[in-house]
């Protein structure tokens, strides 16, 4: 998930903690709709202007595409401020408890809070499709346009929005049961754990279009996982129309686990590199990186809750706690994500060396495994220099290659904590 999407979702929901006030929605709603409409006009104007420059041969088509992406990226970042203006400044978020239809429903209130963010970002996705139509590489038509925006949502914000909305809907259901406050709290904890462990992996695996691997390839991939002591994992081919180089595992509790290998990855990478990609995902699972990342958020929001309690009855108490929780979550998740990503690379190379005698087409030494994984990282980011740079949750490709090289020279002793690697001497 991009940092922009994470911040848009979290900040939108956090605006619900702003001090309540009497809001004139006859003014707040039109003002918000006007800001959203202006955003759509600006994004589409950027797409049209860039397309005309390319069509007039003033700039190269590739340069034009990158220029538009930079402009839309700026619009997405600026949308953070617009969301705060709409929800806080215009007051949309400050009077929700006073609306009879929304009162007492976390699901409906969150739907209102998230709507401006989704609409603002949808403007940039819509502009991207419109640019494609003007440049004759995207199909024209309302159905195709809406489909393009929906696909963009599914590949970004949906990863966070849909699970949150489902959990809030479940919370609304639990709150309406004839239970005491303690019983309702315990039931919600159980429901949340079941959703995270079973429901969420099922949901994520269904967000993608998938098909079966051919029998020979599936048997080979399954032998890799078996040699890595991982069983009861569903293996599927992720159909992206040749657009994506990627692999991921959803779920961490057997048998509700799915390994997705994209079509382009399977069709264009040699077997030794595919093996290293699979072992990288297997290392994430073996080292329990996903639950570790999830648990790492708890201290951040625990501190945020503590700040809220310390602030007491002050009108800014909830907002201060939410802000602290957001900032700490970003810092902690970044640190944990980088450590676990480096660890998965190193452990994948060690796994390859260990199982190479049992599975065909697996690098036989740490050095050759590191070389194969490095080649895969360079191949999947080829032609997209921006994907090789550091992001919020992923270290840069050069950093990952350097980490594997460093641990080959000076083998590290694993910490007892899953998902970490000790610094080499």
TrEMBL record:
Ranges where the Peptidase M48 domain occurs: 244-390
Keywords tagged on the record: Hydrolase, Membrane, Metal-binding, Metalloprotease, Protease, Transmembrane, Transmembrane helix, Zinc
Domain of life: Bacteria
InterPro entries, A to Z: Peptidase_M48 (IPR001915)
Signal peptide: none
Protein name: Peptidase family M48
GO biological process, one term: proteolysis
Membrane-traversing stretches: 27-47, 74-94, 106-125, 152-170, 182-204, 292-311, 317-337
Similarity section: Belongs to the peptidase M48 family.
Cofactor(s), by name: Zn(2+)
Any Pfam family: Peptidase_M48
Species annotation: Novipirellula artificiosorum
GO molecular function, one term: metalloendopeptidase activity
Cofactor mode of binding and number, as noted: Binds 1 zinc ion per subunit.
């Amino acid at each position: 998930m991009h940092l922009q999407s994470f911040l848009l979702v979290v900040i939108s929901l956090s605006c619900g903690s702003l001090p309540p006030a009497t809001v004139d929605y006859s003014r707040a709603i039109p003002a918000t709709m006007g800001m959203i409409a202006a955003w759509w006009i600006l994004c589409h104007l950027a797409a049209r202007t860039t397309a005309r420059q390319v069509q007039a041969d003033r700039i190269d088509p590739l340069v034009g595409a990158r220029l538009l992406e930079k402009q839309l990226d700026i619009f997405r970042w600026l949308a953070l401020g617009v969301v705060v203006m709409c929800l806080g400044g215009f007051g949309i978020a400050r009077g929700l408890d006073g609306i009879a239809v929304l009162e007492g429903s976390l699901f409906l209130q969150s739907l209102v809070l998230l709507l401006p963010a989704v609409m603002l970002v949808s403007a940039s996705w819509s502009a991207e499709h419109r640019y494609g139509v003007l440049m004759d590489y995207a199909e024209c038509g309302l159905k195709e346009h809406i489909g393009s925006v929906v696909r963009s949502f599914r590949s970004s914000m949906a990863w966070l929005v849909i699970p949150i909305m489902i959990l809030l809907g479940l919370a609304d259901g639990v709150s309406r049961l004839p239970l005491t406050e303690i019983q309702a709290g315990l039931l919600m904890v159980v429901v949340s754990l079941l959703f995270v462990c079973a429901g969420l992996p099922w949901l994520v695996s269904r967000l993608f279009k998938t098909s079966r691997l051919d029998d020979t390839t599936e048997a080979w991939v399954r032998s890799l996982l078996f040699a890595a002591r991982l069983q009861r994992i569903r293996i599927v081919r992720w159909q992206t129309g040749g657009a994506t180089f990627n692999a991921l595992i959803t779920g961490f509790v057997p048998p509700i686990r799915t390994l997705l290998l994209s079509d382009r990855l399977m069709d264009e990478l040699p077997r030794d590199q595919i093996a290293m990609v699979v072992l990288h995902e297997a290392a994430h699972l073996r080292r329990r990186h996903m639950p570790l990342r999830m648990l790492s958020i708890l201290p951040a929001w625990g501190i945020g809750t503590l700040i809220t309690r310390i602030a007491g009855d002050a009108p800014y108490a909830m907002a201060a706690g939410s802000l602290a929780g957001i900032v700490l979550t970003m810092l902690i998740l970044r640190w944990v994500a980088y450590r676990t990503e480096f660890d998965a690379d190193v452990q994948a190379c060690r796994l390859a060396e260990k199982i190479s005698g049992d599975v065909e087409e697996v690098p036989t030494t740490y050095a050759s495994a590191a070389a194969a994984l490095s080649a895969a990282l360079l191949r999947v980011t080829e032609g997209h220099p921006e994907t090789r740079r550091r992001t919020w949750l992923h270290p840069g490709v050069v950093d990952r290659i350097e980490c594997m090289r460093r641990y080959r020279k000076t083998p590290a002793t694993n910490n007892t904590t899953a998902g970490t690697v000790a610094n080499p001497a």
